[in-house]
Amino acid sequence: MLSSAGVSSATPTEEMNGAGNLMDFLDEPFPDVGTYEDFHTIDWLREKSRDTDRHRKVRPRVCVQFTVNTFSSHHACLSSVCQITSKSKESVWELIKSLLDAWSGWVVMLLIGLLSGTLAGVIDLAVDWMTDLKEGVCLSAFWYSHEQCCWTSNETTFDDRDKCPQWQKWAELMTGHAEGAGAYVLNYFLYVLWALLFSFLAVSLVRVFAPYACGSGIPEIKTILSGFIIRGYLGKWTLLIKTVTLVLAVSSGLSLGKEGPLVHVACCCGNLFCSLFSKYSKNEGKRREVLSAAAAAGVSVAFGAPIGGVLFSLEEVSYYFPLKTLWRSFFAALVAAFTLRSINPFGNSRLVLFYVEYHTPWYMAELVPFILLGVFGGLWGTLFIRANIAWCRRRKTTQLGKYPVLEVIAVTGITAVLAFPNPYTRRSTSELISELFNDCGALESSQLCDYINNPNMSRPVDDIPDRPAGPGVYNALWQLALALVFKIVITIFTFGMKIPSGLFIPSMAVGAIAGRIVGIAVEQMAYHHHDWIIFKNWCRPGADCVTPGLYAMVGAAACLGGVTRMTVSLVVIMFELTGGLEYIVPLMAAAVTSKWVADAFGKEGIYESHIQLNGYPYLDVRDEFTHRTLATDVMRPRRNDPPLAVLTQDSTTVEDVETLIKDTDYNGFPVVVSRESERLIGFVQRRDLTLAIKNARQKQDGVVSSSVVYFTEDAPQLPASNPQPLKLRRILNLSPFTVTDHTPMETVVDIFRKLGLRQCLVTRSASPGHHHQEGCPATHGSNDEPGPRVHHVQLAEKSFPPPTL
Q: Which residue from 113, 149, 362, 372 has the least number of CB within 10 angstroms?
């Protein structure tokens, strides 16, 4: 429901806000004034003003007053000028406080990097162990994954490097038989059973303890960073439950990843450490600067890509990203990556998840299949977004949404049953992508590297020429084709369920499968038809011309770009993820092509689409406002609407205010001189008004329902028999942001985006503006001067109930 509120009033502790809001120094501050209710937007201008006031207090100043006499033939004005100068000598305590305030931001970044890196390392290790637990167990140490178990074995051979006596599958452990139909069926059954158990635990924990721990979290993070309040979404329980259930969800074998939810986990860490410093806990704008840096740290530990994480935060999630946030994001991402590298969860002493080392350069002619992969990525992104949004909308509007546990169990069961027979869907998605990215060297034993070798070949190991595909390659191709169809379909129904679910890895898997298939096809064409004109110039017989793993990497980037619409950060993440720095041009070509193709069918990526589906109030800075309307066309009240809900500066009673609050749902009210003139004086927030009256009734004697509320500097002249009036000038914003009724809506929308307003007031002047006499300040609130009449324009402020499971 659209609501109306004014530019937020300054906090009780401010001397003057950034827009010139004078404060009353005589009254005691009202508690909780200046805070925000749940599911409301913050006011960036007020938060900036609050931070400016905090700087004044942390770095004290001396105020020197002197008087200037100005004479003219008509009047004499006394002006008071306050000259601000720095103290010549500060106490040691003040210096310490100033240093602590200056360094608190870097301390928070350090803590975020350490905690998010540690959690990411623990999650990686736990996922590896629990994923392998579905197939077997290590007898020497049950907490070892399959790979770790065989590392410690001295009986592992090169040909059977994945087999060792210490690791046994469940059928072999229970029946003593590792082969045969009975062993296969038993392993199949236990694989499905473990998957169902993990997913049931994940959805149950989310449903009972932390409903906000479900999903990717990136759409909500984008909305929160734009200024929206969702209390509890970044809380301690959400952090704990999301960390645990993320391990369970990924280990269940569902078509989802942990990379997106790790951004949510990192932002929860950032919010946790913000509460330790009043600089951030009491200022929502400063808090969002920390959360932007935390999002960068999340991507840094998700992919081992610190620079890509900073660019991801800047390009994809952040709404307000000043230069100092860029440096702090870089520092947080650096600390997080260093912490993850110290834990070494991948066991290869590398930070990157899919390290590759190709020995063949790419050729200009290969740009054609790279661009075709970009087209495929754009089409896949469009298909996925439309199908997934349609399914999620159906989930919201039908009985399906009432049974989230049953939905998760059903999708998990279908996924496990269909995934087990295919070796490329049975393994974890990260392992699948790693195998698809790899180049076929002499030591590879994968089916994808089953080429027919020339016995007369005498070349270095790292320069293996193109060879004809063997039966293992052709067998792998049709298994990959089935895996591609399976991943495309099942991911549509998986993303958006009530468990932690990331989209990066499933999208990359779809692209990597398609890219590997295309790469093998191009490789075999180059081998068998090297005399074709397209191959003649760069592919000679006996040469290593085509690298299928590179095509898988390009396809992964294309599909991820088609779904998320990322470009710059995507390319940087991909080359950091793989270490393939010299392949930036193919990655750029595929990323740009996929974005162009996907944008031809719709500008919104998957995260923006889910923001719209959930009804979050998000004004995307990249959207264009094409409607040719004026502010007068959208302001409230419109013609035939009830009169504008306003307060007068000195004639409204407490009972009138409480009735107005009860009968309306606006988030604030203009304060005018009188209902006849409607000359704008200022704006007061609904929440501040409610808290102030409640506080006055409890602590101030003589305040009753018939007490007059006044917002002027001096109390109005009232009969002696009237009860004590209530002065609320402290919560009045004397400088609300206003535009005229003929302002184009395109300008108004830009103002909301760039200034971060909650709302704007539309004024219509009844007569020419009053003239300020030179040398004297203009008087506010005089009844004899005509001024602008006020209306509301309502944008970017929505209220909606919290999501329920």
A: 372
- Distance between alpha carbon 398 and the CA centroid of its chain, in Å? 28
User: What tokens appear for 756 in the block?
Assistant: 């971060």
Q: What are the tokens at 586?
A: 């193919």
703 and 558 both lie in a single domain: no
Give the residue among 292, 304, 761, 194 at the shortest CA–CA distance from 576: 304
Place of tokens 């030179």: 774
Nearest to residue 611, comparing CAs of 600, 594, 623, 627?
623
The answer on 662 and 527 residing in a single domain is no
**Total domain count for the chain?**
4
List, in sequence order, every residue forming a beta bridge with 82; answer none if it has no partner.
65
β-strands 668-672, 647-648: how paired? parallel
- Let me know whether 237 and 271 are in one domain: yes
Please state the rounded mean pLDDT for residues 144-166: 71
* Cβ–Cβ < 8 Å for 691, 36: no
> What does the DSSP assignment read for 116-137?
HHHHHHHHHHHHHHHHHHTTEE
Question: What pairs with residue 496 in β-bridges?
Answer: none
**Residue 496, domain CATH:** 1.10.3080.10
pLDDT of 772 higher than 60: no
Amino acid at position 582, single letter: E
**Per-residue DSSP letter, 503:** S
CA dihedral (790, 795, 801, 804) in degrees, to 10, reads: 180
Q: Could you read off the pLDDT of 483-523 as tens digits, one per residue?
A: 999 999 999 999 999 999 999 999 999 999 999 999 999 88
**CA dihedral of residues 82, 85, 91, 94 (deg, nearest 10):** 80
Contacts of 333 (CB under 8 A, 6+ apart): 113, 293, 296, 297, 299, 300, 306, 307, 309, 310
Give the DSSP per-residue string, 157-225: -STTTT--TTEEEHHHHHHS--SSHHHHHHHHHHHHHHHHHHHHHHHHHHHHH-GGGSB-SHHHHHHHH
Residue 788 is predicted with a pLDDT of 60
Return d(Cα 10, Cα 376) in angstroms, integer.
52
Neighbouring CB atoms inside 10 A of 90's CB total: 14
Confidence of residue 394 (pLDDT cuts 50, 70, 90): very high
Q: How far apart are CA 39 and CA 230, in angstroms?
A: 5
Residue 289 lies inside a defined structural domain of this protein: yes
**E strand residue ranges, 673-787:** 680-685, 708-710, 726-727, 738-740, 760-765
Whether residue 358 lies inside any domain: the answer is no
Q: Which residues of 259-284 are buried (b: 16+ CB within 10 A; e: fewer)?
A: bbbbbbbbbbbbbbbbeebebbebbb
- Residue pair 447/475 in contact by the 8 Å Cβ criterion: yes
**pLDDT tens digits along 582-610:** 888 999 999 999 999 999 998 889 999 99
Q: Are residues 215 and 188 part of one domain?
A: yes
Q: Give the residue among 263, 247, 245 at the shortest CA–CA distance from 126.
A: 247
**Mean pLDDT of the region 192-203:** 96
Residue 63 near residue 82, CB atoms below 8 Å = yes
The pLDDT value given to residue 775 = 28
Residue 434 lies in a domain: yes
Q: Do the domain assignments include residue 409?
A: yes
* Whether residues 598 and 699 fall in one domain: no
CB-neighbour burial class of residue 455 (10 A; exposed 0-12, middle 13-18, buried 19+): exposed
C-alpha to C-alpha distance for 536 and 349, rounded to whole angstroms: 41
| Domain carrying residue 730 | 631-794
In the sheet that holds 668-672, the strands lie side by side as 647-648, 668-672, 680-685
Cis peptide before 465 (omega within 30 of 0): no
Ranges of H-type helices in 398-422:
404-419
Tokens describing residue 644? 């504008």
Domain finish residue from 277, 310, 343: 343
**Token reading at 574:** 């991909």
Residues 328 and 395 in one domain: no
3-state secondary structure of 607: helix
User: Pick from 58, 60, 41: which is nearest to 50 by CA?
Assistant: 58
Give the Cα separation of 265 and 243 in Å (integer).
7
Q: Are strands 708-710 and 726-727 parallel, antiparallel or unpaired?
A: parallel
Phi-psi category of residue 726: left, alpha or beta, with phi > 0 → left and psi -120 to 50 → alpha? beta
